[in-house]
Amino acid sequence: MIPFEYVRATDVAGAVASGAEPGAAYLAAGTNLLDLMKGGVSRPTRLVDITRLPGLAAVARRDDGSVRIGALARNSDLAHDPAFAGAYPAVAEALLSGASAQLRNAATAAGNVMQRTRCPYFADTASACNKRRPGTGCDAQGGETRLHAILGWSEACIATHPSDFCVPLVALDARVEIAGPAGTRTVPLESFHRLPGDAPERETVLEPGDLITALVLPPEAAGFSGHSRYLKVRDRTSYAFAVVSAAVGLRLEGGRIAEARLALGGVALKPWRAREAEGLLAGRAPDESAFRDAADAALTGAEPSGDNAFKIELARRLVVRALHRAAAGTPERLPALPGSVLAPAPEAPHA
Amino acid sequence: MPETAPRPIRHGSSIGQPLTRRDGILKVTGAAAYAADHHPPGMLYAVMAVSRIARGRVTHLDVAAAKSHPGVVAVMTPQNKPALARHPDEKTDGFTFRLDLLQDDRVRYANQPVAVVIAETLEAATEGAALLDPAYEAETPAVGLDSSEPFTPPAIGVGDPADMATGDVESGLAAASRRIEATYETPAQYHNAMEPHAVVATWDGDTLDLDMPSQGLAMAQARIAGLFGIAPSDIHIRSPFLGGGFGSKGMIAGPQVLGIMAARLVGRPVKLVMSRPQMFGPVGHRAPTRQNLRLGAAEDGGLTALDHETLTATSTFDDFIEPSGGVSHTLYAAPALATRHRAVRLDTGTPLFMRAPGEASGSVALEGAIDEMAEACGMDPLAFRLRNYAETEPASGKPFSSKALRECYARGAEAFGWSKRPLAPGRMRTPDGLLVGWGVGTATFPALMFQAEARAVLTATGEAAVAIGAIDMGQGAWTALAQIAAEELGLSIEAIDFRIGSSDLPNGGIAGGSAHTATAGTAIKAAAADAIAQLTALATQDRRSPLYGAGNAGVIARGGRLVRRDDETRSEAFAEILARAGRDAVEGKGAAGPDAAREHYAMHAHGAVFAEVTVDPDLGQIRTTRLVGAFAAGRIINPRLVRSQYYGGMIWGVSFALHEQAVMDPRTGRPMNANLAEYHVPVNADVPALEAILVEEEDPHVNPLGIKGVGEIGVTGSAGAIVNAIWHATGRRVRTLPVTLDKLL
């Protein structure tokens, strides 16, 4: 760890001014950043502690039906907010399927969005990584690639984004509210994270000094609450990053799908919105054939980036499963194992 | 041969009681001081810089940059390290393994220490170590079992022959009406005890004071003494609590010696604690294996031959060969039996002892192959195992000193509900369509005995002081050994000042091989018997005593008194006997070691593990929804602690079957998942239902206490049962472990 300056921001403007300095990084819970600093992966020269910024932890329902999630809202507080979980059950399920209870109690909403990839070559300072040190190459390729990207990757980077939370958020058209040196703006979460292209070091659209102040779910996002699921295939039952995950929201009218939302996690360097699949589902009956078509569409263009071809078929099957589960209706209570494909289906009788 | 008479039942017994851990409150309140909790005055922090290549040479270290970092006191490199009296690569006996102590610029594996930075703070030492920024001349490392030419090792494990054969396997296979051949692969697994290796070292002239987790104090003393050219008695090691050992703390690890060297270099106390990623290198690991099994069976399911060939790996610079074939020597009655071990040399640290070394990896392959043979014979896997039940040890022909495996099968099967298992795979589903499978595996582990000494002093107050340099590594020695002392002295456990975990106590041997309770317990029993005998002599030879003339065999110790066997109204308190004799105390000494009975009997603990798995038919995700193990391991000192050992072992089985593997980059030979986020072990949700059944077993031969040991057996059987259950759920035999979901798609 190199010596760094610690600055405690007291208001957003001050935070932005302080955060705009070269080498500065914002510190919230630090559940990811501090680990990366200890490993020498991130070496900020200034930490701007934003945890004391007033009002940034609030979850506010607005008159237009939208909801504003303060950047500092704790993952666990948000997931256990009954009104929030009732309106956006897939978001709550995604939150509770991630990390551990201890981490969720600390981690913030914006911090979750800002998580760095779990690519082992990114985390390993002895490996070449274009994301960590631009232009040095990508040692992941030809190495251990079982969990790497199958969509949207480039020769420069095959990493994935690890967030669960972002997957249903992107499906629900969430927007990111950003305070920057030039004022406040909002951008769709879908375009917030960047695909690697030839500049994987540019992970988001944030500019120096930009601070996420909130995540906003639009009014129509609550319209999927009756038929929403987040499912996450994992290498162990809990406390593991997704091999692949899927967030689904359906609006059913007269036995048909009026509108569908679908996004995938663990497949690309950003939460992957499957718009073409959504379009295919609109107007169809919620059945296996429609779901398979959607799954095929969602994985259009998928290609293995190494020893991970299985993820393509796995993601297809997971999409079908998640659509079935969503069509069956959001469970009355969150499953005991949130996001688990092994949890009993909602229609199954309780043991 | 010894008689098999039932032991007399003694009154006031402490053995057999399910006492809670006597150190439990200390641990849960944080009052138990582990090695790294110590901060002697003037202490500095040492942090290792470790190699980022797996093979080659360090060509440059930026020592100046590290030294100029504020707070850095010294940088220890091959150039300035303190001189050692013995080269770290010199082997003096079979338990001496080569250490990396900055002897030169060679790199023999990734994460090998290449320098140590000593500083006023942990942060300064950490940054100093990063600033060293080593430059390397890298060579292509050997990675994986196919990377070099196998050789026949001179010995496997701790000195067993590489090859063993009895009967003619090829004829047995030829005569079989059914044959199977299967190759199982197990990955490299790395030690990840909660407590990483640590040392706090203080030199005073040529005497050395250490807080250091160790599973074997006397062995550590001897190794340190040899390296530094000092007397073992000038080394004091305190190791009252270990945050897990599992074999990795059996011998002192190189990084711990580096901490001692660092303290010598700077002339101040030094603490060195390994980081989690550094655990993936210099502290031993379980080597990968590829095991080829060929089995033949007659029409009735009786095995005609069992051939078990193991290819494993050791380091380029030392030999430790995972003895995977050993389980085949013991478990199933095959008239023709052969095992062979071959190894390749890889650019890794030397693999060493890891919970059930050999038995764990061998068991999963053998149990898988046995299941495949049962399937080929159209038999229920449990019935097949019973059909091939070994009445005598197959490899040696010796009778078992005791073997309640039949009862384990029966009790486990009953508790699990095995009789309802459909023979064919893929027949059971949950209401929501998930596949369910049931599997069984046989557990076994040898009942070993090492050497130990103990002291038991009966004092004028009628109480006792019992001391032995035994080790509690989480298994419960503080409690179980004290129960033995209480039992043998006829005192309540509260009346005993019980001391372990320090090298200035009598040599308690090594807490390893599942033999510590047996060995240390037997030494305590002997010391207690000696003390009681001395006390008895004082009483029975004294006309003033109500016990006068009873003879040594005529009294027993109970409730702090000696009591006449034939007349319980005649007794005398320990304190009264000592007072009248004018004695402050009587001091008993005892020793334990393997005895001649070992030549006549095969001695093993046994068990049967039944596993239920749930598998998603489309997505492949697996969960072990139920594990039931029934184990027979001789006399049980404390059923609560023993059950906990079985639980832990069975959870290791889940880990072995489904999770653990070091992922090595094939180009660099570096472990790419050297942290607990990516190196998976089970979490609570992976172990929803666990049951351990303690099957009674009396063994009059194994040692005077009849104890077989329970520390490692739980790993065996369990992983195989899970792999077999996955087959039963899916119809797919996955022979490459761990079984991850992609292997089922």
Structural commentary:
The complex is a heterodimer of chains A (351) and B (745). In chain A, helix 10 (275-281) runs antiparallel to helix 11 and helix 11 crosses helix 12. In chain A, the strands form 3 sheets. Chain A has a 5-stranded antiparallel sheet with strand order 4-5-8-6-7. In chain A, strands 9-10-11-12 form a 4-stranded antiparallel sheet. In chain A, strands 1-3-2 form a 3-stranded parallel sheet, with helices on one face. Chain A has 351 residues and is of the alpha+beta class. In chain A, strand 11 (256-265) and strand 12 (272-273) form a beta hairpin. Chain A has helices at 12-19, 33-38, 75-79, 82-87, 89-96, 101-106, 109-113, 120-123, 166-171, 275-281, 288-298, 310-327; strands at residues 5-8, 24-27, 46-49, 59-61, 67-70, 175-180, 183-188, 211-217, 228-234, 242-253, 256-265, 272-273. Among the domains of chain A are: 5-52, Uridine Diphospho-n-acetylenolpyruvylglucosamine Reductase, domain 2 (2-Layer Sandwich); 223-327, CO dehydrogenase flavoprotein, C-terminal domain (Enolase-like, domain 1, 2-Layer Sandwich). The longest helix of chain B is centred in the C-terminal third of the chain and has 25 residues, at 516-540. In chain B, the strands form 7 sheets. In chain B, strands 3-5-1-13-10-11-12 form a 7-stranded mixed sheet, sandwiched between helices. A 5-stranded mixed sheet of chain B has the order 7-17-16-15-8, with helices on both faces. In chain B, helix 5 (217-228) links the parallel strand 11 and strand 12. Chain B folds into 3 domains: 24-31 and 450-593, Aldehyde oxidase/xanthine dehydrogenase, molybdopterin binding domain (Aldehyde Oxidoreductase, domain 4), CATH 3.30.365; 35-139 and 197-273, Aldehyde Oxidoreductase, domain 3, CATH 3.90.1170; 285-448 and 599-744, Aldehyde Oxidoreductase, domain 4. Residues 1-12 of chain B have low confidence and may be disordered. The A-B interface holds A 1-2, 40, 118, 120-121, 124, 126, 139, 142-144, 146, 233-241, 243, 310, 313-314, 317-318, 320-321, 337, 340-342, 344-345, 347-349 and B 52, 123, 126-127, 130, 430-434, 614, 616, 618-621, 623, 658-659, 663, 665-667, 670, 672-673, 677-678, 680, 682-686, 740-742, 745.
